[in-house]
UniProtKB/TrEMBL annotation:
Keyword NAD on entry: no
Gene3D superfamilies for the chain: Periplasmic binding protein-like II
Protein name: ABC-type nitrate/sulfonate/bicarbonate transport system substrate-binding protein
Keyword annotations from UniProtKB, A to Z: Signal
Signal sequence interval, chain numbering: 1-19
Length: 346
């Protein structure tokens, strides 16, 4: 039987028919890839030793274009987040509870670094380090003499709540026994002490160590014996950011975890990062790092205790402990670390 060969024209038509779906698929693949890419993320952080490692997150971010912006205080960072100038913010557990109390929609997605608080007192005060009974006696003497015993912090930061909680623990009423002075920018703490404007300041690293190094005041205590413990920094975002850019949030958390692990394992790098970002010398940076603990976990029970303490101290108008728990989103940490939330502070 004689075979029938297809004509050249038929072969060309068949080739075109086969090629069409392949070309269409090739066109669709990049489009799908683009759709899967994360939108850029802007991360804001405050100018403190805790926060400086966040300046490294862009170089350790994968799958997202991450940029960082530094602000003077945590309050400024929170304002930027709420005004949608940034997408992810480094704040404190205090800011988190305060924002929820005011009805703002914020979601916590990871921890960052804890510790970093020091109580320092004027050199002239006759109190020894850790002598809370002696401090209380002095405060009451000031009160009896009709003189204000002035204590300062940057209202709204972790050091403020650490101080208030520690005073409460040791029987000093910050609303009745002392006069609170708000110094918003921690870099101004040293001059307030030098000018004799306050008797005591609870400051944040590296400024607390700087105060001691330049002999503007002497060490009194680490204010960690209260409900907040050492809890300090928390990374938060808005629900609309999670909804519109979940991959970007995930990759941001991944970068935060990477940098935290790096800081924990490489102390010289941590010291160098604080030195470079703040401009303070390495002696001060070293002292600051000794009072800091990189930790990306979110501690639910302690966060609730902070919220309750803030209500007891009349720092917030309502008990937001329920909202504090509800808005801790562990899903990103779980995906990044491969651990269940029970191992991440829940």
């Amino acid at each position: 039987m004689q075979s029938v060969r297809p004509s050249l024209a038929v072969l060309k038509r068949a080739a075109r028919a086969l090629a069409a779906p392949i070309m269409a698929a090739a066109i669709l693949v990049p489009a799908a890839g683009r759709a899967a890419e994360a939108e850029p993320v802007k991360l804001g952080y405050a100018k403190c030793a805790h926060c400086t490692p966040l300046s490294l997150t862009p170089q350790y971010a994968t799958g997202v274009k991450l940029s960082t912006i530094s602000f003077n205080t945590g309050n400024d960072v929170l304002t930027a987040l709420l005004s949608k100038s940034i997408d992810v913010a480094q704040v404190t557990y205090l800011h988190y509870a305060t924002a929820l109390d005011k009805g703002f929609k914020v979601v916590a997605i990871s921890g960052q670094i804890n510790g970093g608080s020091q109580i320092v007192v004027a050199d002239s005060l006759p109190v020894q380090p850790g002598d809370w009974d002696g401090l209380k006696k002095l405060v009451m003497q000031y009160k009896k003499d009709g003189k204000p015993f002035r204590v300062a912090a940057s209202r709204g930061n972790a050091q403020d709540i650490h101080m208030r909680g520690a005073f409460l623990t040791h029987g000093i009423d910050i609303n009745k026994d002392v006069q609170f002075v708000n110094i918003p920018n921690p870099s101004d703490h040293v001059q307030a002490l030098r000018r004799g404007e306050v008797e005591l300041i609870t400051s944040v690293e590296p400024f607390a160590t700087q105060i001691r190094e330049v002999k503007a005041a002497k060490f009194f205590a680490f204010p960690y014996d209260q409900a907040a413990g050492k809890l300090t920094n928390l990374m938060v975002t808005r629900p609309d950011v999670i909804e519109s850019n979940p991959q970007g949030v995930l990759e941001t958390v991944r970068a935060i975890v990477k940098v935290d692990e790096l800081m924990a394992s490489n102390k010289p790098l941590f010291i160098d990062t604080v030195h470079k970002v703040t401009g303070l010398d390495k002696t001060i940076a070293t002292g600051a790092v000794n009072n800091l603990e990189p930790d990306y976990k979110m501690y639910r029970s302690s966060a609730v205790a902070i919220a309750k303490m803030m209500h007891d101290l009349k720092y917030v108008n309502s008990d937001v402990s329920g909202a504090v728990q509800k808005n801790l989103d562990y899903s990103f940490l779980e995906k990044v670390t491969g651990k269940p939330k029970s191992q991440l502070g829940y």
